[in-house]
Amino acid sequence: MPRYVAFLRGVSPMNCKMPDLKRCLEDAGFTNVKTVIASGNVVFDSRKTAESSLERKVEAAIKKGLGREFLTCVRSVDYLQKMLDMNPYSDFKLKVGSKRVVTFRRDNTSVDLKLPFELDNARMLRLVGQELFSVYVPSPKSPAFMQLIEKSLGKNVTTRTWETVQKVVRA
Length: 171
Description:
This protein is an alpha+beta fold. It has helices spanning about 20-25, 50-65, 75-85, 140-155, 160-170, and strands at about 5-10, 30-35, 40-45, 70-75, 100-105, 115-120, 120-130, 130-135, 155-160. It folds into two domains: about 5-80, SP0830-like domains (Alpha-Beta Plaits); about 80-170, no CATH class. This is DUF1697 domain-containing protein. InterPro entries: DUF1697.
């Protein structure tokens, strides 16, 4: 059965408990459900294969079970593994201490970004399909970088570290 990852925007241990989130997806009929880290990453199996349909089903399950709404971006584990194998950062020299991040877009509308783009300690490097690959060196200005991503791509996005993507693929 195909395996998927739901990346939820805005989830933290303060606003969503992972056992409750897991239960919501199981109640909706998803199988082999696992949460990864406490920031809204859920891995699951589903016969349904259209990611947009899975996004709506996950969001409906969370609203029904928790009374909360979180934007959800779903990708197949196979797709994420290919993305990891591609290593979109390999063509760039990264500063020491750089954090690699992936911004998952909910839709594939055209975006006019002049890349690579650098601001303070952050660089937007490459847009491949629906994903934006960036790096930043953690600093007090890091939240400004997240605001720049939102300004460039809109609010229908969620961002994860490269390490988190590796963890969900292995889950």
